[in-house]
Write a structure and sequence with these properties.
Elements lengths: L4 E6 L4 H11 L10 E6 L5 H14 L4 E7 L2 H5 L4 E4 L15 H18 L5 E4 L4 H10 L9 E3 L2 H15 L6 E2 L2 E3 L7 E3 L4 E2 L2 E2 L6 H5 L1 H7 L1 H9 L5 H16 L7 E6 L11 E9 L2 E4 L7 H22 L4
Parallel strand pairs: 1-2, 1-4, 2-3, 4-5, 5-6
Antiparallel strand pairs: 7-10, 8-9, 10-11, 12-13, 13-14
Helix pairs in contact: 1-10, 4-5, 5-11, 6-8
The structure holds nicotinamide-adenine-dinucleotide and (2S)-2-hydroxybutanedioic acid.
Length: 326
């Protein structure tokens, strides 16, 4: 068992967890046949459902899956974890903003940061999916003083993938032919989906679409996509979120495509005028299990303004979180 990679998922009986656990167990993150242990964490009312998830995982007879641990104890769930997906949280409903979840979810992520600090592998990669993801990542990292804050990140990969899909559809190409998309800032309606650096099949995107669309419909469609899915399904995106979580972790661990980058919310060093210290989504390149913010991109006034707006929102969320009695 010792050679089995340890992966922890919180909220594993929820919508996203139900997708994520099976995709990981089938080898879609670490590679087909790579031995792994799933450490599935839930709260007491969902433990019965979680045992059902474990039964189904067993019934899949996956080549990779060595062991499934189901627990409501964070200490047990995070023990030795090398990859951690912090998904478990309350999702928003129709008419809510993701920041409306701050009060309810802040306590969860602070407590999880403390438990990770005690139990997880020192080099564990932690991806925060539960909303408001950027500020939850900040709270988890701040409560894990022995871990490197660079080992925490929040998910804007779903927004990145959505933006690639929108641009691909507009230009009549496949989403995989889009490179160098950027999501700046917060995983919220202030995020700035930026195609100014993007390539489609190797051609400059700005030469293929008009500026009015790039700064209007494209922007709002990506910013509001989560809300549109909630309106359509009556519940928030789950399969696409699990897919993006695997994309995020895989690229972080195994590296981004040559010449390309991805969007990840990582601790800000102030690059591109973003506020320092918040978890801010940047274009990043990953290699050897580490990420670096892509530097040296030319930004115009429009982009700088959008980066300021989403940065201001993250500073306000940080300040609101600091006033909570956790
Ligand atoms: P869900 O309600 O279906 O599942 C959440 C699960 O988490 C539930 O089973 C619940 O019992 C569990 N849970 C709650 N508190 C917990 C805790 N303290 N510890 C462990 N488990 C706990 O929700 P979902 O659709 O799976 O969404 C989960 C989160 O992901 C929500 O916050 C949602 O807004 C967010 N989300 C983020 C993105 C993104 O792009 N960052 C995308 C989609 C959803
Ligand atoms: C999404 O972007 O789909 C998720 O963050 C869920 C939501 O609340 O929008």
């Amino acid at each position: 068992m010792s050679q089995s990679t340890q992966l922890a998922i919180t909220g594993a009986a929820g919508q996203i967890g139900y997708q994520l656990a099976f995709r990981i167990a089938s080898g879609q993150l670490l590679g087909y046949g790579q031995p792994l242990t799933l450490r599935l964490i839930e709260i007491a009312p969902a433990m019965k459902a979680l045992r059902g998830v474990a039964m189904e995982l067993a019934d899949c007879a996956f080549e990779s899956l060595r062991e499934v641990i189901t627990t409501e104890r964070l200490e047990e769930g995070f023990r030795g974890a090398e990859y951690v997906f912090l998904v478990g949280a309350k999702p928003r409903g129709p008419g809510m903003e993701r920041s409306d979840l701050l009060t309810e979810n802040a306590r969860i992520f602070s407590r999880q940061g403390q438990a990770l600090n005690e139990q997880a592998d020192d080099r564990a990669k932690v991806l925060v999916v539960g909303n408001p993801a950027n500020t939850n990542a900040l709270l988890a990292a701040s409560n894990a003083p022995d871990m490197n804050p660079r080992n925490f990140s929040a998910m804007t990969r779903l927004d990145h993938n959505r933006a690639c899909a929108q641009l691909a559809a507009r230009t009549g190409h496949h989403a995989r032919s889009v490179e160098r998309m950027i999501i700046w800032g917060n995983h919220s309606a202030t995020q700035y989906p930026d195609l100014s650096q993007a390539l489609v099949d190797g051609r400059t995107a700005t030469a293929l679409v008009d500026e009015e669309w790039a700064r209007g419909e494209f922007l709002t469609t990506v910013q509001q996509r989560g809300a549109s899915v909630i309106q359509a399904r009556g519940t928030s995106s789950a399969a696409s979120a699990a897919s993006a979580a695997i994309d995020h972790m895989r690229d972080w661990a195994h590296g981004t495509r040559d010449g390309d980058w991805v969007s990840m919310a990582v601790p800000s060093d102030g690059s591109y005028g973003a506020p320092e210290g918040v978890y801010f989504s940047y274009p990043v390149r990953c290699a050897d299990g580490a990420w670096e913010i892509v530097q040296g991109l030319e930004l115009d006034e429009f982009s700088r303004d959008k980066i300021r707006i989403t940065g201001d929102e993250l500073v306000a969320e940080r300040s609101a979180a600091s006033q909570l009695d956790l």
